[in-house]
Write a structure and sequence with these properties.
The complex is a heterodimer. Chain A is α/β, with parallel strands linked by helices. Helices cover 43% and strands 21% of the residues of chain A. Chain A has one domain: Rossmann fold, CATH 3.40.50.2300. Chain A is globular and about 30 Å long. Chain B is α/β, with parallel strands linked by helices. In chain B, helix 1 crosses helix 4 and helix 2 crosses helix 4. Chain B starts with a helix and ends with a helix. The chains are: A alpha/beta, B alpha/beta.
Chain lengths: 121, 287
């Protein structure tokens, strides 16, 4: 079973994502901000990260840059999942090492399509 | 819905598009045709069906379009597009090295995602294709879908189903809440109005044909007839791509499966595949 870390400050989004990911046979962990997520990754690298952009304490892009510098930090497949939907943000995410990018609102079909595109399914 | 109304609409749809509507799919009539009825100032489906016997050509066309419009997404199922890039493309580059051109048909292209997916693959391979002329032709029965395909304008939802983010960034521009495909990709595809039940001869010969998730809506004799017509429009080394739930086996001996390439079929001129009893032979007289 593959593991996915869900990083989002919205409880509702985390719940929706968790439900979809369990249906896709992932084990999940959750973090409310980038710092919490980074701490979890230091303990154990997940196979995938579903990552919000705008969060308190540490945002998604800073988390991603931090993650990629950690030992083994190139392992997780990182899929952004954010309301930011302009080319500049997407480009910045790719440059920072994101593997895919979901523009909210999303549904299980989009999440599934993106996850299979990056080889997680 | 009265039984004779159902029979009549089913007959009209089959004759005009090949679409088979069975009683268990009658909810599709309700969901697809109610908007058509409303646009015509009618109360609902029953009024529309009641008016069928005196319906104008215009209305019949609108009904057919509404029933045959199907969803489409970029790089649908991924695998066929990978096979196109890794197997069909090298094969064509070798086989057509002398004339440096070949043609691809996206049959029943709907809103153009399949044709544009192929165009993006070719664009990504531009270095190897310098000096080549590769035509992509998308055809559909629906004028509305063809307009949408030509416009190349997709919703945020549509560009997230199957399109890798790198390709979105590279080949699309954001236009308010929509995404506009790059003119260079747009220019690689021509769109033509064509009903798969018709004779494709006027479209010219195609080396590679994508005809995916269309045959599932036809009955066996119609599938055989369409496959036969497609094969006559292809060279001996042509390749046909069908949808994941479709096959030629037991339907037509005009094609044979390509080993290890799921969903890909090669033109079969020998007729030594196993023709489906009765079905294929019905149509072999037309050659």
């Amino acid at each position: 079973m593959k593991s996915c870390l869900i990083v989002d400050d919205s409880k509702v989004i985390r719940m929706v994502a968790r439900k979809i990911l369990h249906e896709l046979n992932f084990s999940t962990q959750e973090a409310e901000d980038g710092q919490q997520a980074l701490d979890l990754c230091r303990k154990q690298m997940p196979d995938a990260v579903l990552l919000d952009w705008n969060m308190p304490i540490m945002n998604g892009i800073d988390f991603l840059r931090g993650l990629r510098k950690l030992p083994g930090g190139d392992h997780p497949v990182v899929v952004f999942c954010t309301t930011e939907n302009d080319i500049d943000h997407i480009q910045e995410a790719i440059t920072a090492g994101a593997n895919e990018y979901i523009m909210k609102p999303f549904d299980s079909e989009i999440l599934q399509a993106k996850f299979s595109q990056v080889g997680l399914l | 819905m009265r039984a004779e109304d159902f029979d009549l609409i089913a007959k009209i749809l089959k004759e005009r598009s090949g679409l088979i509507v069975t009683a268990d799919k009658s909810y599709l009539l309700e969901s697809r045709l109610t908007p058509v009825a409303r646009r015509r100032g009618m109360k609902g489906l029953d009024d529309l069906l009641g008016s069928l016997r005196a319906a104008s050509e215009d209305l019949l066309r609108e009904i057919t379009e509404a029933m045959t419009t199907n969803e489409s997404f970029f790089f649908r199922d991924i695998k066929p597009f990978e096979l196109f890039r890794t197997a069909a493309l090298p094969q064509m580059l070798q086989a057509r090295a002398a004339k440096k051109s070949f043609r691809i048909w996206s049959a029943a292209c709907s809103s153009g995602q399949e044709a544009y997916s192929l165009a993006m693959i070719l664009k990504e391979e531009a270095a190897r294709l310098a000096g080549w002329k590769i035509e992509i032709v998308g055809t559909d029965i629906s004028a509305e879908m063809l307009e949408k395909a030509k416009a190349g304008l997709y919703s945020q939802f549509e560009v997230q189903r199957g399109l890798p983010i790198q390709l979105l960034v590279k080949y699309f521009k954001k236009n308010n809440e929509m995404w506009q495909i790059d003119p260079s990709i747009r220019a690689m595809v021509q769109y033509r109005d064509f009903n798969l039940l018709g004779d494709p001869k006027s479209l010219g010969q195609f080396d590679i044909v994508f005809c995916r998730n269309v045959l599932i809506y036809f009955d066996q004799p119609t599938k055989a007839r369409v496959l036969d017509a497609i094969s006559r429009n292809m060279p001996d080394d042509g390749l046909l791509y069908l949808g994941g739930a479709e096959t030629v086996l037991g339907i037509s001996d005009r094609f044979r499966p390509v080993p290890d390439q799921r969903g890909v079929y090669a033109v079969n001129r020998g007729g030594n595949g196993a023709p489906a009893a009765g079905v294929a032979s019905l149509f072999s007289g037309g050659r």
